Structures are given as structure tokens and as C-alpha cells.
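Notes continue from the previous slide.

Worked example: a multi-chain complex. Inputs as given:
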Amino acid sequence: MAQTIDMKQMEQKLQRADRKQSRLYLFCNFTAVMIISAYSALMFSPTVQTVFPEGGDSRKQMYMIFVLTLVGCVVFTIYALGLFFRHKSGQLGILMALGASRRRLAPGLFREVFVLSGASAVIGIIAGFPFVWIVWNGFRLILVDSSDMILSFDFKCLFVSLAFLLMVVGFACLTAWRYLKKTNIMEVIREEHINEPIKELGKWCGPVGAVVILIGAVMGYGAPFVCHRWFHTFPPSWLGVLYTPVFVGLYMVMLHTVVHGWKRHKKNPYKNIISRSMMKFQGKQTVNNLLIITLLIAGGCFAIFYLPSMTVSAMIRYADQSYDYFYKYRADQNIPGREEIEALGSKYQLSFKDWGECEYITLGIGGNTEIYDDGGKRYHIEYVPMLVETKILSEDAYYMITGEKVDVKSGTYLNLTNQEESSSYTNKSARELTNMVTREQIDTTFAGYLHYDLLTDDVGCCVLDNDDYAKISEGLTDDWKGRMVWFNVDGKDSYQFANAFYDLYVDSFDERCEHPSFYDRVTKIRENEAGETYWGDTERMTKISYEQSDSFDFRQFWAYQPDFRILSQNDFLRNVAVLCMMFLFIFIVCLLTALVVCYTRCQTIVLNNRYVFDDLKKLGASPDFLSREVRSQCHNIFKVPTIIGMTGMYLFYTMIMYANDGRLLSAEWLALLVDLTILAAIGAAVYAVYRASVATLKRQLGI
Amino acid sequence: MLYVKDLHKSYEVGKTKYPVLKGIDFHVAQGEFVAVMGPSGSGKTTLLNCISCYIPFDKGSITVGGIKLAGQNEETLARVRNTKLGFVFQDFMLLDGLTIRENILVPRIVQGEVGQEAEQLTDKLAAMFGIEHILNKYPAEISGGEKQRTAVARSLINNPLIILADEPTGNLDSKSSRTVIEAFGNAKAQMNATIFMVTHDSFAASFCDRVILLKDGNIYRQLEKNGSRSEFQDELLDVIKEMSE
């Protein structure tokens, strides 16, 4: 006599028999939750939060891709849940047909989905932390390390992960309840075999979709410019809605891919007919999956493109720098002189040449600026005398630095900009310059640009006629005067020397200079005199400290940060490490998620359509034919979203770069070239996973 | 035993309503073996699904063992399915993760009453239908005929008032079909089982006491077997031919 079993034991036995489905569901849930947990852990970590400027583009970009990944993971978990229940419904239906009531089935079913979804989500959340720790410290070990990169967690991130966990478990229980509520038992039984064909649209659908994507991208990106430039208002956040056509267009393109495909089959209309039909009859799921994969790949590209666009221009600038060492300091600071520096250099067997020094002064300069009204929503342009600080050089000083003789007419000024005139710190509207000690003013007008990259920093720089310079600088105290120093190394430079000199240089400044370059003394005086508090004296101002002179913030923002070529070149990646590594991490996460979704989608070909392949075998289909059908389906799943995601984002990025100043600078061309190389690498990675997936599927189908 | 009165059922696709059953009336007596035949779309399976309480019906009444199905709550309908009805499906509907013995016992497991008596009944049914040697195997390891005989055994495990069979020979070869039909015959002879079977197969139907022929949602004719099985099959074929003209 066999051992009798009860309902609970029977359910457990059935669950054991379904372990393949359960494993797939666990894997999908676990991956999605782990990715969200890892992403939010890194995003909310103090390491990242302190480096990403508040309200800056990079932070917005990080949040935007997070939302994209979150949406992708939500849709993916719902899809995985759907797969699980499609299979489970057969079992539920049979038990219902044989007289099991909802009340009888509910405890077992809820227990199963609760345990599966809950356990996978909890393990996913926990695994997110070691995952991010391993990847991050892998970066530190292999790529770059700095004091900024020490990883710490703010467990605030757990709120996001827990919300996601609740959503996963909630959705699972809701779906279980929905199945139990069904009154048509035959529907429940047949659920696994029910197709989800989509409404067929004409062949215009794909091409029109592509145009709609373009329109959405142009509208979404262009609208803020229109608001700003034409209507002088700040673009409201809802303006992002204008990107909606991008998603509609994407849906149309994917629909076309699934329903018609992009190849013409005029010569051989039956080619890959099996795989095309299979895709069509699971159309809803397939289109959703293709959309998610496309968005994730586009998100990944958006993140990784940040790296070349940030690094290439800096690298070019360092390489083109006119002097090995160039720095400036206020005259009231006790900075090491030539003898001291040469003595330090001799310790590293270095001698110097082309030594030069000159004086500069800091004045208040007037200019047009945006004055906010209507609670900051709108603005108008108004001229403000004593608007901001500017560094002033005489004609002679400029000649000493650059070797270029200029003749500035009295009563005018020439504004410094970089070679490509892309500097943001130019001022064409000044009418007067103000000595901030004596309050003497001289009238002036803009007379054109001078081009010299080393003099184009965060504070504007102008060149005046020698006599005007002498006149306006009378009575200035040392805190409004400064010196610029430059020299080259005779022979090969030493990084150790540069480092030692940098430390010596920073140590010689006092606390009066411990501020970022955008701390503007002229604005402070003007606002204080008007009875207002200067924002630079509030908590909103970025704080920098000599104690952390090798941190990203310090090197990026310090007002007197020197340009030491060898130090900049070697430490660039270290200085921007957190930014770069965060974006690299986002890229890895997006690509990984996209590949997991691709792989899972391919797995469903086996799970849902095994019988089709078995029937084809019985009908005499050759292994070659079956392989082609498998490849054809996987091909569409991997190829179409990858091409659309990569191409779309490449074009979008090009558009962003172009829209910055209505042209593409040489550094931007180079960055776009590097982006192409990255795309080739992504393509290769996707292709490798595609090959692996096809091989796995063929093995599972016994082809 | 089973009374069906003025049964109406329609399906809605979008805004269009398609009537499938247009007022069906019949009854099945205890120990009777009744088949329902008819062309595709005549409403056979819909009729069976309504009697099985798998789908709700629009109008009319179905009474099984004195219980009117209309207006009953889900819990009562489940109890009716479990205790009053036995089911045999075209594609067997065995649970892959359970052994043949466990599959036969599923209605009892659902009921929560698996004891010595149920185990003995399982052995008895397995012997009756010639599947005692596969009781510890899994569905994937046995033939289609064996699967269907397992399903017949499962349908009898709760001593139901009536067995409802939907195309039970539809997926089987002729030899297996005969075995399954003979299994129904055994159930009727040895357990006085009442069987209500939907089929396309005139050979299977010729084993029945009575055949209800459906056409376009109405009863076209009811035939009773008076002579031999082969004569009854010939008569059935003639009426089917007449229906299609």
C-alpha cells in the first residue's frame, strides 16, 4: 500500500515537479531586485551623493536612467510572473475542475507565490550590496582608485529596494488572486495555450514609428530651449511629457518588427515562417520585451557615452597646454618662490626653463544678467554694474604669457576664450570696470576675443590697454591683486615632483582662499550692500577643504587650482573617478538587465513552443531547418532592440552635443568616434550572449 | 439524475453575441450511458462545460442529483464537481508531477479524505481498468490509452452520480479507444455508473444506450439503441449524414 498524501503534500510535490518554471521565476525576480538594490545602494551612497553636483546634469542623468531601469525591472518581473502563472494555471485549472474550491487552493497558492517572490526579492536585496561592493572595488583595483572612491552606504536606499520588494510580492499575490477569481475554469486550464496575437497594422507602422521617435526626441529636447530663449521662462518639469512620442514610436517600430519584420520575403515568402508566426502569436509579450530591452540598451549607452564626452576634451586640453606648470595666486598669499621650487625640483633631478611671472588684478565687471520674476518662473535680461569678478591682464602681461602682441584700444577690453570659443565665461556686454577697493570706475566696451586655453577658467579674464590697467589698479589692496606663474621642465617631467609641488602649493594658502572658484566676492559685496545674503555664504555653497586636496570637489572647484600638466593627465581619471565609475556601473547594470531579459525571452521559446519543434521534427524537419528557426527568433530579440537602442542614443547624443552651441567641436567629434568604438564593443557582447543563448536553446530542444 | 431544461448559453465577442445553446431539454437516468454528437460548433462541448459547472450559463436550469446549479456559490459548485461529478477529458489532464496512483486520488485529496478505503478503491479501479502495473509511474512514462484509463479511474474515485466525458477517445488510436470505451462499460456494469459523453466518434457512441444529436444549438434528434452495436452505429451514421445535408 502506498503512503497516502494530503493536499499540502500534493501541492509540494507539484511544486517540486515545476521547479524549472520556479527557477526561471526566481532567477528573473532575483536579478531584477538585485539590480535595483545595487543601483539604489550606489546612487544613495554618500560616496556618489557628495560627488554628483546637486541639481547638475550628471545627477539628473543618473536619476533618469535609474527610473528607466526601474521601469524595465518592473515590466520584467511582471513578465516573469506572467510566465510562471501561464504554466501554473494548467495545474490550478485541473484542480478546480476536479472540485477544488478557491478556499481550498488559496493557502497553497499564496504560500507558494509569497515564498518564491518574497525569498527571491529578499535575497536579491541582500545580494545587491555585495554585488555593488565587488564591482566598485573591482573598479578601484583594476581601473582607478582615490580617496573619493571609498564606498560607504546610506541605508536610505533600502526604502527603494523594500518598495520594489513589496511591489514584487504584491503583484505576485494579486495575480494569484486574479487567477483564483476566474469563473470560467476552461479559461484557466487553457491559459497556457492561449496566444496573444496583436492587432496587425499596415507596413507603414515601422517607418512612421521611426519618424515619430525623431519628432519626440526633437520636441522633448528642443522645448526647454524654446522656453528659455524665446519666452524667457524656465522650462517646467512636465515638459518632459514631450518625449512621449519617442515611446509611441518605439512601440510602433517594435510592432512592425514582430508583425512584419524588416526583411522583405518576396523571393521566399515562407522563409522563417515558423519563427515569424511564433513571434506574432505571442505578440504582446514580445513587443513589451523588445521595448524594455531597447530602453535598457539606450539607457546603458546614455550612461557610457558620458565618459568619452567628459574625458576626451580634458585629455586634449592637457596635451595642448602651453606650459608644463601654470598657476595663479593672490598677492596676499605666501606662495613658494622660484628658488624654493627649483630646490624642490633638484631633489627630483629636474631643471626648469621658460620661467615667467606676471601680475593680474581682480575687478568688478558689469554685464547683462537674468533677473528672476514671478517667483523664479520667468526672467528678464537687465544690465547690472559690478555684476561679477573678472581677472584683468595688461597688454604686456598677456604678451609675457602668450608671446602674442595685442593692441587694446583705451576704453575697450578683449575677452579671453578658448580656441573654439566654447567657454561659458565670456562677457560681451560690460560697460564699466570697478576697482572694488576705491570704487573707481572706467568705462569700457567689448572689442573682441583673444584665444588662450590656460586663461579660460571659471572666472572671466580680460586684457586691457596698459594705461587703462595702470589707472584702474591704483589703490587696489593685495587681496585684489595676484600673480600668474609658468614654467616648463627641461627634459622629462616627474609625477612625483608635481605631486610634491602640488602639496607644497596647497599648503601655502591660508583660509581666505579656501573657497571654490564660483565664490564671487563682487557679487557678495553687491548683495550685502543691498541688504541681502550672498548665497555663497549659505549652506548651499559647495564646501571644499585643504584637508581633502586630492578629492574630486577640491580639484574641480578650488579657485586657485593649478594647471600641472603631468598631474592633470595622471590624476584626471582619479579626480573624476566616482563620476566615471558610477556611469560605468550604470552601463553594466543596464546592459546586464537587457541581456537577462533577452535570454529569458529566448527561454520562453523553449517553454512555450517545445511542442511546435517536436511536431516539426515528426514532420521531418532537418536539424538545420530547426536551428534556423531558433536563430531567427533569437536574432530578432537580440538584434532589433540593440540596433535601435544604440543608434537612437548615438543620434540623440550627437543632437545634444550639436545643440550645445550649434556646432560639433573637435573634442566632440573625437568623443563620438570613441562612442562608435564602444558601440562596436557592446554589439560584440550582445552577439556573444546571442550565440550562447542559441546554443543553450538548441541543446534544450534536442536539435 | 441529470435534468437539463431550456438551457441557453451565448458567447460575446466584442459587441456581438453568438448564441451557442438555444434551449436544450433532456434528462439522463441513473446507470444510463448517453452520448452527445453533432458537427463542430453545434454546442456539444459548451453543453458539457455548463453541466460541469466550468462556465456559467445564461438561462434555463441544470439539476444534478437534485441540486440546481443555477445561482449556487463557487464553494457549492466546487463541492458538486468534487462529489457528484467525475470528469474525463480529451487530453487526459493528468498532473505531471504526481504518480498514477496519486492522480487517481486527486479528487479525494482535494476533499481531504484519503484513507484506507480510498487506497483500496484505487487498487480496485486500477485492477478494473488494467493499470495496476503502472500505479507508481508518472504520466510522462505511460501511453495515451493508459492515461485515459487513469482518467476514467480518477473520475470514479469519489463514486460520482455521473461521469462527464469530453471526447475521451479523441486523442487515442482505435485500440486504445476501444479499451477506454470498454472501461466505461465496466464502470456502468460493475458500479452502475451514469455516463454522459461528448464525442465525434460514431464507433464510441455506438456503445451507448442513447445518443443525443445536436445541431446549431438545438437537439436535432435522440436515438436509443434497440438492436446490436453495429446496427446502432449504422443508424447513427445515417442520421449524421442526414444532418449534414
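Summary box: The interface with chain B takes residues 1-2, 4-7, 10, 13-18, 91, 94-104, 183-186, 189 of chain A (CB under 8 Å). Residues 322-564 of chain A form one domain.
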